[in-house]
Amino acid sequence: MPRQQVSAEYRGFRTAGIRLTEEILPELESHRTEKLGDTLPAIHRFDKAHLVMLAEEGLIDAGAAAEMLRGLREMEREGVSEARYRVQGGMHSGEQYLIRALGEDVGGRIHLGRSSGDLGAVGRRIATRDHLLVTLEKINGFRTVLAELAPDHADVVMPGYTHTQNAQPTTFGHWMTMWLCVLGRDFDRLRACYERVNTSPAGAAILAGSEFPLNRARTARLLGFDAPVPHTMDAILSHDAECLEAMSVLTILTADLARMADDLQLWFSSEFGFVDLPDRFCGTSSIMMQKRNPYFLEATKAVSEQAAGGLTTAFMVEKGSTGLPVAGRKLIEAALWQAFAGAQKRLDEACMVFRELTVNRERMLEVVRRYWAQGADVAGALVSEKGLPWRSAHQIVGILVRRGFERDIPPLDTTTEMLDEAAVEYFGKPVGLSPEALAAALDPRESVRRRTLYGGPAPEALRRELAEFTTKLGDDAGWVDRTRAYAAETERELEAAIDRLVGEPT
């Protein structure tokens, strides 16, 4: 009795009676279409591009290729996901669909020169690069908001913190432009990852390629890749770019967003009261009705924790050298798609939050005045006016600060007599700093204005450096636009090639 399946009921290449004698246990079945996740559209595009290449190279009959390409377009009319879920077959669902529709003599030709290896690798790389590009666009969207708003907060003086302690005066605008720098580096990392991911494994099969003369460069172009991966074994067995590196740069990005959220969560607290969030980004308590819980900030931190867990999973799965097992690959992909979706959502929300964030400048100034953030400026005045060594000035002001706290005297009420008293305690003589110099050193607003150095918090420095950040943002946005244009061009080229083969007008 023939073992060949009836085409209309074709269930895939792994059926009992061929190589294996039993049907696979359902829980171990890997070729289930719902397991493709975000790679499904990429698998569909690969099916089309591979058929075009096979026909152009004369590796399959042009008529058979045209029939199959028409079949894939019919699938699109039904809905790619719906059709592939219906016929099943996972990454081989295109072949399964075509064999059922056209018979094995036609539909059975699509897999020439391919393997589950390059099918999965192409799907994973396309899905990863698409997520990277969307995330890059959303990073730029948030950078644009920060660049627009930072000048409005250039003179909003606030305490800078180290070790959660009041450190030096800065401004809320200076804090905002710090994130322009951070997000600029995140952009660079994701862009570099994109460029490494955007090379094509198509034609590498499972590691040694094919004896048929596949045109790997043509398939790469039709899939929107920059070039083929130059080594067939590397294309299939190495996943450092689309798995480890992609998960790594995503983990860094989400960790940066979590650090930003951590600052805002502290400043949103009742005790700080520096900032206020719109109510739609907050929750409340079922028992403590006074609560306004910053859910957006907590969700932003949770995405970082999720990504870090995914990174650990990726490194554990990738520690082998004999290829990526199906179960492990699915774990990595699920973690990647989930973390990308979370990061993209939080970036969108961050744009809204910052546009509507309320900043309490009076409260910020009150706190920066109270806890000796000006201490380094007083020491600087002793260096500038009295010529003291920095360390001597530092020690004298340390004594001054301690005595101020012991006597409950706030910084702005400090006198030159108190400073001389501290100097006598330190090295036995007064320093004689002028009252004008002490008053200027104790004013946190003047402290900020004096720091005009490159990258400093002075409003004039912030606006000067903002021009540099904005120029980089424009360059980065231009790269995204060019990358989008190339992707669209190759997609049009693929459809035009299909039109020629099926005899439809382009």
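[next item in queue]
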Amino acid sequence: MINHAEQDVYEEVRRLTNRRGVDVVFEHVGASTWETSLRLLARGGRLVTCGATTGGEGKTDIRYIFSRELSIHGAWLGPKRDLQSAMVPVSEGLLRPVVHEVLPLAKAAEAHAIMQRREHFGKIVLVP
């Protein structure tokens, strides 16, 4: 696991992949991570984008995309059956969500402040 607040994501991925890069990046942050997400891809890699919480305009050198034969795919929510099949490895304990903190719904403003200050690593769960 790479903690973006404590490590340089690009350098750590390069180290872990012996400078090769990764085959797929699921990009859901947007402008602030877009350029790094593209640079993390190995030749022929795919970037799947499904969100833009930090902005919808990412800087892209088009030459980098075609010279490395990269693909960019947009994704939106799928049908319920896709979510159910994706949850199988979670229910089997093969994938674990990273949860920073669980707070009561009454502390939603506090949760929002934590996110705005970028003090969290993983999800913040609100419980009604």
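[queue empty]
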